[in-house]
Design brief:
InterPro entries: SusD-like_N (IPR033985), SusD_RagB_dom (IPR012944), TPR-like_helical_dom_sf (IPR011990)
CATH architecture: Alpha Horseshoe
Signal peptide: 1-22
CATH topology: Serine Threonine Protein Phosphatase 5, Tetratricopeptide repeat
Keywords: Cell outer membrane, Membrane, Signal
Radius of gyration: 21 Å
Strand content: 5-15%
Largest sheet: 2 strands, antiparallel
Helix content: 40-55%
Shape: globular
Oligomer: single chain
Domain RagB/SusD: 344-469
CATH class: Mainly Alpha
Order of helices and strands: HHHHHEHHHHHHHEHEHEEEHHHHEEH
Distance between the termini: 23 Å
Strand order of the largest sheet: 1-3
Family: Belongs to the SusD family.
Length: 469
């Protein structure tokens, strides 16, 4: 019986030679035609290629290439976005009719565990890396990616972390050992608790911070790991730790806000980004049925125009705010014309910002305000607002609500929506439509947690399904 790593084992352990070429295509192959992982990672060069392959995997449409950005937005679309497309998986999420056969829920789970297993393979192969600095760097990168994937999984497939609670609610299975054979993939494994998953994420990121160089080109650096850990602590409502890390990144990473928000998305590896998914016109998450530009854009022949921006959200931007004007919020002219679209994703081959400095300013602002340092919070919020031409807030206007609204205005369509609502315990207001009266969906509702994929339950009897599925 194959467990959660069934396909991961086929693709990574039995077919690792594919990842050594940094290929990001997902292939189903015959295991008997493949190379065993213990043989494949037998040199420093091959381990280095496997590390490159880890980053390439993040560009999968099942991860940051599409779903880890889009799915958290679709889970809470009310007064924000609408899904106009025909893909059943996304329509289910937006309409909250998801079931255990949802293909996005299956694909995210499967591909995230593939990335985790590849990180485990790299870590276990480190003894063949003779160059000390490279050995530390590769371990740090593997730990960073493993932590990132577990953080994404626990936020999507488990109930929200409860500050001060035991957090014994089911999380996701943790595996720190690489799967190399079909037999190794046959071990069933139960779900670890939410507390255990967060502890593992924090352990890996803490190690990564010490192992990674301060500057690592377009790959994860020590400051990238600090920024992700700040995000993790914020999700846990550990505001003091989150604020301290965000402050460190702002002051010491060497990063700076780009002149405009638009330039973060139209330029590659801007001064603002701490992590970008590297794409180009030949290698990207997709140009027909997947990819962020594919689903969000409606520009001539480019894009499907599946995701529209609702006027209720667009109206939150004031007239002088560039984030609400033509470059970043436009009326579609291609597929499904006439609706508002985000200008953040407008070409198939553009890089995808995953962590950027503006988020660190917003974290520092929120944590400063919660620590009764309103002056510091106001300065950070206005730094973000004035970059885009929005009117600076006054001290009298500053509140936790205005800080959280600014976070939504700045980080819109970047994969933060449902996670922020959950951590702030904010219920979802559904306005009246036709004969349907207005209603409120509790943010603790079971339907806002993705199902454990049906195929995983069938092959791993130790797994327990989430309530409601």
């Amino acid at each position: 019986m194959k467990s959660i790593f069934s396909r991961s084992a086929y693709l990574l352990a039995l077919g690792l030679s594919l990842s050594l070429t940094a290929c990001d295509k997902q292939l189903d192959i015959d295991p008997f035609q493949s190379v065993d992982a213990s043989t494949a990672l037998d040199s420093e060069t091959k381990v280095g290629s496997a590390v490159v392959g880890m980053y390439a995997r993040l560009d999968s449409p099942n991860l940051y290439g599409t779903d880890l950005i889009l799915v958290p937005e679709l889970l809470a679309p009310d007064n924000y976005i609408g899904f106009q497309g025909t893909f059943t998986n996304y329509r289910q999420l937006a309409l909250r009719t998801t079931n255990a056969q949802n293909t996005s829920a299956e694909a995210i789970w499967r591909t995230a565990y593939q990335a985790i297993n590849q990180a485990n393979l790299v870590i276990e192969a480190l003894p063949v890396v003779a160059t000390a600095d490279l050995k530390s760097q590769y371990e740090g990168e593997a730990r960073f990616i493993r932590a990132d994937m577990y953080f994404e999984l626990v936020r999507l497939y488990a109930k929200q972390y409860e500050p001060g609670g035991a957090n014994t609610q089911p999380g996701v299975p943790i595996s720190l050992t690489a799967v190399r054979t079909v037999e190794g993939a046959s071990t069933t494994q139960a779900r670890n608790t939410v507390a255990e998953v967060y502890n593992q994420v924090i352990t890996d990121l803490t190690e990564a911070i010490e192992l990674l160089p301060d500057d690592n080109g377009t790959r994860a650096s020590s400051y990238t790991a600090k920024a992700l850990l700040a995000r993790v602590y914020l999700q846990q409502s550990r505001f003091v730790e989150a604020g301290a890390l965000a402050d460190d990144v702002i002051k010491n990473s060497g990063k700076s806000l780009s002149p405009t928000l638009q330039s973060v998305f139209t330029n590659r590896n801007s001064s603002e980004t701490l992590l970008e998914i590297q794409q180009n016109d030949q290698n990207n998450a997709g140009a027909s049925n997947s990819g962020l530009a594919t689903l969000f854009a409606s520009i001539g022949q480019l894009g499907r125009g599946d995701v529209r921006v609702l006027p209720a959200f667009a109206n939150l931007y004031e007239a002088t705010d560039a984030r609400g004007t033509a470059q970043l919020l436009y009326v579609g002219t291609g597929a499904r014309p006439g609706s508002l679209r985000t200008g953040k994703y407008t070409t198939y081959g553009q890089n995808i910002p995953v962590i950027r400095l503006a988020e660190m300013y917003l974290i520092r602002a929120e944590t400063s305000f919660r620590a009764n340092n309103a002056a510091a919070a106001l300065a950070d919020i206005n730094r973000i607002r004035t970059r885009s031409g929005a009117t600076p807030l006054t001290a009298a206007q500053l509140s936790l609500a205005t800080i959280l609204r600014e976070r939504q205005l700045e980080l819109a369509f970047e994969g933060f929506r449902i996670h922020d609502l959950k951590r702030t315990n904010t219920d979802i207001f559904v306005p009246a439509s036709g004969t349907n009266p207005a209603t409120t969906i509790p943010i603790t509702s079971n339907i806002l947690v993705l199902p454990i994929p049906f195929r995983e339950l069938n092959v791993n009897t130790a797994l327990v399904q989430n309530p409601g599925y």
